[in-house]
Structures are given as structure tokens and as C-alpha cells.
Amino acid sequence: MDEPKDDLIAALRGFGGDALRDAWLFDEETHESVYVREDVERQVADVDVAEYLDNERYGYVTRRTFEELHYTEYNYTVRGFDAFTQFRTFVPDDDRRVGLIASFDPNGNYDFDDLDARLAEAVGTGDGLEVTGD
Questions:
Q1: Residue 79: which CATH number?
Q2: What is the distance between the alpha carbons of residues 44 and 104, in angstroms, rounded to a whole number?
Q3: Position 63 in a domain
Q4: Which secondary structure element, helix H or strand E, spans residue 51, and what is its range?
Q5: Non-local CB neighbours of 48 within 8 Å, separated by 6+ positions
Q6: Is 122:8 a contact under the CB 8 Å cutoff?
Q7: 14-44 per-residue burial string, b: 16 or more CB within 10 A, e: under 16
Q8: Whole-prediction pTM value?
Q9: How many domains in the chain?
Q10: DSSP for 54-115?
Q11: Taxonomically, which superkingdom (predicted)?
Q12: Strand-pair category, 96-104 with 20-26
């Protein structure tokens, strides 16, 4: 792994500790697993991750829509599932953005504004954060 990704994982682990389940980076063409906890790896073995992340790419469209319709900037989305809580954001890198999906064990009383701030501090503009593909 490289330094920007190491910094990203350190920020996620600093926020969620052992509750961090997985983290995936994606852009408009490909995706990459940057962290998957061992028990979660077994659970997602039969999941079509590529298809799932294809759906997440719609976030590029909705992010643009939100930013055009609202007076404020879109930061992140949180989804609650019965087995985990999922966080999605986009890290700016010049004219493109790298998407990040991370999930945490449920019922953690998470402060996702804090996570958003940690990620911004860890990766800044996302310079050097490349999605190499799985």
C-alpha cells in the first residue's frame, strides 16, 4: 500500500478502531479494496463487489446535483443496515474525486462529522490517492 492509502486507513481506524469492517476506494472506472477485516472478508466472499460499487458511482451524479441545488457543499452519506453502518464520501483530487465506502459495526454512536474531518486532515485534497483496481 502507499502513503496516502495508509493515512486513509489510519484515519478510519483512529475513528472506528476494531469496529472498522471494510474500506473501498472507487473512481468512475474501477475500484480497490484497501481494508477488509477477516470476518467480513468471509461474509463478502460471495458478494459481487464490482456491481455494488457500480451502483455507488451514481454518487458522482447525486453529489453534483446536491451541490447545484443546495447552498452548501455535500460532504458524505451514511446508511444504516442491520449488520453495519456505512459511510460514503468523495475525496477531491483536482478535477476528479475518489469515492470512499467504509463500514463499521452497528450501534457505535458514531460522529460522522468527526470522521469527515479526520479524513480531510489525513488525505487533504486526495493528491496521490489513486485507485489501482482489484
A1: 3.30.450.30
A2: 14
A3: yes
A4: helix 49-56
A5: none
A6: yes
A7: ebbeebbbbbbbbbeeebbebbbbeebeeee
A8: 0.86
A9: 1
A10: HHHTHHHHHHHHHHHHSSS---EEEEE-SS-EEEEEEEEETTEEEEEEEEE-SS----HHHH
A11: Archaea
A12: antiparallel
